[in-house]
Design brief:
Elements: E1 5-6, H1 13-28, E2 35-40, H2 44-59, E3 63-65, E4 73-78, H3 83-102, E5 107-112, H4 118-127, E6 133-135, H5 143-151, E7 160-162, E8 177-178, E9 183-187, E10 189-190, H6 201-205, E11 209-210, H7 213-225, E12 230-234, H8 251-258, E13 266-270, H9 279-287, E14 294-296, H10 304-309, H11 316-329, E15 334-341, H12 348-361, E16 365-370, H13 388-413, E17 417-426, E18 431-435, E19 441-445, E20 454-462, E21 466-471
Parallel strand pairs: 2-3, 2-4, 4-5, 5-6, 6-7, 9-12, 12-13, 14-15, 15-16, 19-21
Antiparallel strand pairs: 1-8, 10-11, 17-18, 17-20, 18-19, 20-21
Bound molecules: iron/sulfur cluster.
Iron/sulfur cluster is lined by residues 192, 194-196, 199, 201-202, 236-237, 273.
């Protein structure tokens, strides 16, 4: 399923630059098949952005390769959410230096959230001067022009930094390459207005901008026509979709429109902010034909004191109210969540409230993180007296609790029948990889590769966090 599928065709001035770049590589540099390597760090939003950048590169005549050693262009689409992600980029830049030394014509490009931070840009310029182009999240639509300027030495010494603060509407109709023919991400909005005290996203991605519903519906329909079966709507906070648009539309009403096509498919979405998750949303899921019965609702903490410090703008009680409503309205619904352990000022008592909430909700899976400060966020200035060792102890305690909950949920599913999408086939194991409606991994033995098809499955066994099924 790694074949690239091109969906759109560009247009206008950037398409002209794509043609010019194609000409430079073919006619001037005499490279018949230029190769680009694109590495994506971080969230699904970045994966989606990289699909657009790969689409533009393809329009310029590049083949996308997984091998950076022989690439003519090496592009890192970076993530700023955790320091660890940034360190990985700096580490890989060190490796790329040797490639650039061997072949000085290789163009090194850095883009994405990291580059929206001025100190990071300064560090790159100082310590990694071989980087040719740095551009921010709001400049991506001008990628062809920027690359053309580099190749044409229109920029100073052939290097370019292009970070604009203007938050344009979302790039529409960009060429796009998807590396999966069954599952696709559709970005419905960009940016965030919430300013959770630990998060860098609003500073690097800017304020919320929703795509027009017609553009989303058009893209969605096109994907269904092309045979895509599992479509995930993306945004930093999908629940506030439409608030910035003139027309009267919100996320539940968008979902309703997308649920109405006569194909067999699944709709998923992320990420939801609990403060904007409404009963209307739950009702739409409950009455839908295609929306997966899994709600990812990042709670982060079960202590009201900590939620306040995090600036999350909901309480444990309001969170539990929406969870209870969903349990009541959507049979067999599962929940997943994100938890930060050891937020500055968190006590063991606060942490125990998180444990209580986890036991109460019974999440099918959790994404857990030990708090790590992000420079430039309010939380990074808060006193943080609990040691990393202590926080790690808390995290292990939490994981143990969660493990038995996941196990219990999986066990309860044995004996159930489900219609699921076969996402992948593992030839040497003769096994189809699927996901239950509640987003739990499900393995189904099969002698035939049925990936891309919906199959009826009997759930026959469970493991710690996964299920085993048999074809009906
Ligand atoms: S909702 Fe909060 S955690 Fe999520 S992107 Fe916005 S600021 Fe960051």
């Amino acid at each position: 399923m790694s074949e690239f599928v091109k969906i759109y065709s560009y247009g206008g001035v950037q398409e002209e630059y794509c043609k010019k770049i194609n000409k430079i590589y073919h006619e001037i540099m005499k490279i018949e098949k230029p190769v680009a390597y694109v590495k994506t760090y971080g969230c699904q939003q970045n994966v989606s952005d990289s699909e657009k950048l790969k689409g533009m590169l393809s329009e310029m005549g590049f083949t996308i390769s997984c091998d950076c050693d022989k690439a003519d262009i090496i592009l890192f689409n970076t993530c700023a959410i955790r320091e660890n992600a940034e360190n990985k980029v700096f580490g890989n830049l060190g490796r790329v230096k040797a490639i650039k030394k061997k072949n000085p014509n290789t163009i090194i490009i850095l883009c994405g959230c990291m580059t929206e931070q001025e100190p990071v840009v300064q560090k790159i310029k100082l310590m990694y001067p071989f980087v040719d182009l740095i551009f921010g999240t709001h400049s991506a639509q001008e990628f062809p022009k920027m690359l053309y300027d580099i190749l044409n030495k229109n920029s100073s010494k052939g290097k370019l930094v292009h970070i604009i603060n203007k938050e344009d509407s979302i790039l529409e109709n960009a060429p796009l390459i998807r590396n999966n023919k069954i599952k696709a991400f559709i970005s419905i909005m960009s940016g965030c207005n919430n300013f959770c005290s630990y998060c860098i996203v609003p500073y690097v991605r800017g304020r919320e901008r929703s795509r027009r519903p017609e553009a989303i519906i058009k893209e969605f329909k096109l994907l269904l026509e092309k045979g895509y079966k599992d479509l995930t709507l993306l945004g930093q906070n999908v629940n506030s979709y439409g608030k910035d648009l003139e027309e009267q539309i919100n996320f539940p009403s968008l979902l309703k429109k997308l649920d109405d096509f006569k194909y067999e498919y699944k709709i998923r979405f992320m990420t939801s902010h609990p403060k904007d998750a409404t009963k209307e949303l739950v009702d739409v899921i409950a009455n839908s034909k295609h929306i997966a019965r899994n709600i990812h609702l990042p709670v982060q903490s079960g202590s009201n004191q900590i939620l306040k410090r995090m600036n999350r703008k909901y309480t444990k009680e309001s969170y539990l109210e929406i969870i209870e409503y969903a349990k009541e309205k959507i049979p067999n619904v599962t929940f997943s969540s994100d938890i930060i352990v050891g937020f500055p000022g968190e006590t063991y008592e606060d942490f125990c409230e998180t444990l209580e909430l986890i036991k109460n909700v019974k999440f099918s899976s959790l994404f857990t993180f030990i708090y790590s400060p992000r420079e430039g966020t309010p939380a990074a200035t808060l006193p943080d007296p609990v040691s990393k060792k202590e926080k790690t102890k808390w995290l292990l305690e939490l994981l143990k609790v969660q493990e038995s909950i996941s196990q219990e949920i999986c066990k309860k599913m044995v004996g159930r029948e489900e219609r699921v999408l076969a996402e992948n086939y593992i030839e040497n194991e003769k096994c189809l990889m699927c996901r239950s409606d509640g987003n739990i991994i499900l393995k189904v033995p099969s002698n035939t590769d049925l990936s891309g098809e919906f199959i009826n499955v009997n759930i026959v066994d469970s493991a710690r966090e996964s299920l085993m099924g048999s074809l009906i």
